[in-house]
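Subject: sequence -> structure tokens, single chain

Hey, anyone have a minute? Need the predicted structure for the following. Not urgent.
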Amino acid sequence: MKTYSFKVVVEPDDDRWHAYCPALEKYGASTWGNTEEEAFKHIHEVVNMIVGELTEDGIAVPESPREAVEVLSDTRVAITF
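Reply:
Had a minute. Here:
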């Protein structure tokens, strides 16, 4: 088993919250929620699903970039497969 740690960004977007994972955006790692907590929960689920699919398909899981992004909330999610 291996644990992957990904930077995720959760930021306000009009009347809801937008969340995405820069390292996995090309695989569709973007979602939203009505609250910051809901958006974070959703992006965690999306990242988990993408890592699972990549692992299952034998595709190397990209590393999370280290560059800084100016946002209200910048955190990480950990996924173990």
